[in-house]
Write a structure and sequence with these properties.
With 238 residues, the protein is of the alpha+beta class. It contains seven helices and eleven strands. It starts with 5 loop residues before the first strand and ends in a 13-residue tail after the last helix. The model has no long low-confidence stretch (mean pLDDT 88). Residues 147-220 form the HTH crp-type domain. InterPro entries: cNMP-bd_dom, cNMP-bd_dom_sf, Env_Response_Regulators, HTH_CRP, RmlC-like_jellyroll, WH-like_DNA-bd_sf, WH_DNA-bd_sf.
Length: 238
């Protein structure tokens, strides 16, 4: 019998904007359809735009000289993507790849500067958005550096549950098919080591698979392994 899961409410990273200030952003956007497999920007491109995802998904990646890819963030509808540095001509440190056909709103730097200069309340909301990005980066590197690969994997599973989770009692279904290769790229590990760690978590009855998707059965065990600091969901997300 198929279990019934309730969707965990997801929040985009633009919830820090008031309705009025978000509408100001919407007015400045130029809509664009972006096909799957294309890129919003590449590492090294000038960061003169922000992108608001109205529909679809985008992943932010960093590549090494050896060609190894590290997935840093996964963005979805309601998220704004880009380098949060409106007053300096900087270059993107990451690549943004579209992983589902997406509808995005493009916000030009000059339009963003006008909003910041004209509306002090918008400037405050934009600073909050920048702060969320800063905390996301801090917690991501904490995951990767502090508690080894098992801690990084458990934290990533928790983040996936907060982002794509559907809940049934104590179980959380991650309602996106995430491959072992994806997980290895998210934590900077080999696919073989991810296979071993997931097998160990399954033996401990912390996770299982349902129709090819991961189900978190013991959230407390995952939190204990990664020394979870119980960050709010807008920070503890993929």
């Amino acid at each position: 019998m198929k279990e019934h899961y309730n969707v965990i409410e997801a929040h985009g990273n633009t919830n820090c904007f008031s309705e009025q200030n978000f509408n100001r952003l919407l007015v400045t956007m130029k809509e664009r359809m972006v096909p799957e497999g294309s890129h919003l920007f590449w590492e090294g491109d000038y960061s003169d735009k922000l992108f608001y995802i109205k529909r679809g998904r985008v992943k932010l990646t960093k590549s090494t000289d050896e060609g190894k890819e590290l997935i840093l963030y996964m963005y979805q509808a309601g998220d704004m993507v880009g380098q949060a540095d409106p007053f300096f001509s900087t270059k993107h440190s990451f690549t943004a790849e579209v992983i589902e056909e997406s509808e995005v709103g493009v916000i030009e730097q000059k339009d963003l500067e006008i909003l910041i200069c004209q509306h002090c309340d918008f400037a405050i909301d934009f600073m909050k958005w920048m702060g969320i990005h800063h905390r996301l980066t801090q917690t991501k590197f904490r995951d990767l550096m502090m508690y080894g690969k098992p801690g990084a994997l458990c934290s990533t599973l928790i983040r996936l549950g907060n982002t794509y989770g559907e809940k049934n009692g104590d179980n959380i279904l991650i309602n996106k098919k995430i491959t072992h290769t994806d997980l290895s790229n998210m934590i900077g590990a080999t696919r073989e080591s991810v296979n071993r760690m997931l097998s160990d978590l399954r033996k401990k009855d912390a996770v299982e698979y349902e129709n090819g998707m991961i189900v978190i059965k013991d959230l407390g065990m995952l939190q204990e392994i990664c020394h979870c600091e119980l960050c709010p969901n807008e920070i503890c997300r993929i």
